[in-house]
């Protein structure tokens, strides 16, 4: 993303860190507010445009920090308006970011890692393995890029979902630092309830998140209805088994008083069966949760099929009859490989 490796990207700094750095340069602390406003509200990608700063300060900032826009390796626009960007990072790792417009919101789907080490057996992101965590600046640059794109469409960015490539809680510190900037009034000022963190189910990090006192939405990738079915699709289940994960989610809800969303992939004959609905209802009984049912988006390396529409509707109805609220996600951007990791994988 950045072109000059000798300089740190200013977007890696929290508001407090930037304030301290400016004060150590002999500047007034309100300069941090001005710089944050330029970057996060006005979309500045150069210090030169910050005209309410003195020339001397702008030169000083340029000497010390980088503020380059991300390099876009490709852009694909779906018939439904979903737009997928492949970002080319400084070390030429590629990450995907998706703009998802719907009638009443504009969402950016963000990646937090280059690749993924969890290897879920339905997901293109895990196919090439994991390379590294993204920096705070690389996370924020994705959002800032999509924010500008949304502005051009006159549909302002309203929601942020961490559901791109990578396991978000695996890069916990960078993720939380980015979220504080997204949420803060000096930064992007997007409400915590409009920010969703998805996780594959890293139990210790779910416990840690419960202590953060920030009202973000938590989405847990369940994708199985017991240990046996989850083991088939998610190697992480060996480390954090299904029943322990459900208990950790119950504890999270009790601690935060917040609802959890369970992401659940619908694969014909595997996860979309009557047995699965019965088991899920048994395990999730009485929980403050909802299910997000995701039709499998075919990836050629895996031998799965999506269910038929009537199979999916029957599954949803079966859950409903057992007291589980579920919504069926409308596939977005299928014509542009919008399933997680497909574009990045295709670029390798
Ligand atoms: S679903 Fe998430 S955790 Fe699993 S391989 Fe894909 S990116 Fe990684």
Structure description:
This protein is α/β, with parallel strands linked by helices and 348 residues long. The chain folds into two domains: 8-66, DNA polymerase, domain 1 (Orthogonal Bundle), CATH 1.10.150; 71-346, Alpha-Beta Barrel (TIM Barrel). It is built from eleven helices and 14 strands. The chain has helices at 15-24, 30-41, 55-64, 136-152, 172-183, 203-210, 227-233, 242-256, 274-284, 309-321, 342-346; strands at 8-9, 65-66, 71-77, 83-88, 94-101, 106-109, 113-115, 130-133, 159-162, 195-199, 217-221, 260-266, 289-295, 326-328. The model has no long low-confidence stretch (mean pLDDT 93). The structure holds iron/sulfur cluster. Iron/sulfur cluster binds next to loops.
Largest sheet: 10 strands, mixed
Number of strands: 14
- What's the number of helices? 11
Which ligands, by name, code or SMILES, are bound? iron/sulfur cluster
Helix fraction bin = 25-40%
Mean pLDDT: 93
| CATH fold-level label of the largest domain | TIM Barrel
Tell me the series of helices and strands, N- to C-terminal.
EHHHEEEEEEEHEHEHEHHEHEHEH
Low-confidence parts: none
Provide the spatial order of strands within the biggest beta sheet.
3-4-5-6-9-10-11-12-13-14
CATH class of the largest domain: Alpha Beta
**Which class do the helix and strand fractions yield?**
alpha/beta
> Judging by the overall fold, what is the CATH architecture of the largest domain?
Alpha-Beta Barrel
Beta-strand percentage? 15-25%
The CATH superfamily title of the largest domain: Aldolase class I
- Rg value: 21 Å
Shape: elongated
Distance between the termini: 18 Å
Give the domain tally: 2
């Amino acid at each position: 993303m950045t072109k000059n490796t000798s300089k740190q990207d200013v977007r890696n700094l929290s508001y407090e860190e930037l304030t301290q750095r400016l004060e150590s340069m002999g500047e007034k602390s309100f300069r941090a507010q001005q710089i944050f406003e330029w970057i996060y509200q006005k979309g500045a990608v150069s210090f030169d445009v910050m005209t309410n700063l003195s020339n001397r300060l702008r030169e000083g900032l340029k000497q010390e920090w980088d503020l380059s826009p991300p390099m876009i390796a490709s852009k694909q626009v779906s018939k439904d308006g979903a737009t997928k960007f492949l970002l080319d990072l400084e070390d030429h790792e590629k990450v995907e970011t998706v703009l998802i417009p719907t009638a009443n919101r504009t969402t950016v789907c963000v990646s937090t890692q280059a690749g993924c080490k969890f290897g879920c057996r339905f997901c293109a992101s895990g196919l090439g393995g994991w390379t590294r965590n993204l920096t705070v600046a690389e996370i924020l640059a994705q959002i800032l890029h999509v924010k500008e794109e949304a502005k051009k469409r006159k549909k302002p960015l309203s929601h942020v979902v961490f559901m791109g490539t990578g396991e978000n809680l695996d890069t916990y510190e960078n993720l939380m630092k980015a979220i504080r900037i997204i949420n803060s009034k000096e930064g992007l000022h997007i409400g915590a309830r409009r920010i969703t963190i998805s996780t594959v189910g890293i139990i210790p990090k779910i416990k840690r998140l419960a202590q953060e006192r920030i009202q973000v939405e938590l989405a847990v990738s369940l994708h199985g209805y017991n240990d046996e079915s989850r083991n088939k699709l998610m190697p992480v289940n060996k480390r954090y088994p299904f029943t322990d994960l459900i208990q950790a989610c119950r504890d999270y809800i009790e601690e935060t008083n917040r609802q959890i969303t369970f992401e659940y992939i619908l694969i014909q004959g595997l996860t979309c069966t009557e047995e699965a609905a019965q088991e899920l209802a048994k395990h999730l009984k009485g929980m403050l949760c909802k299910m997000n049912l995701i039709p499998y988006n075919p990836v050629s390396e895996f031998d799965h099929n999506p269910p038929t529409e009537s199979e999916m509707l029957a599954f949803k109805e079966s859950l409903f009859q057992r007291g589980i609220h579920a919504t069926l996600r409308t596939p977005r951007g299928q014509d542009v490989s919008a399933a997680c990791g497909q574009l990045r994988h295709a670029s390798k």
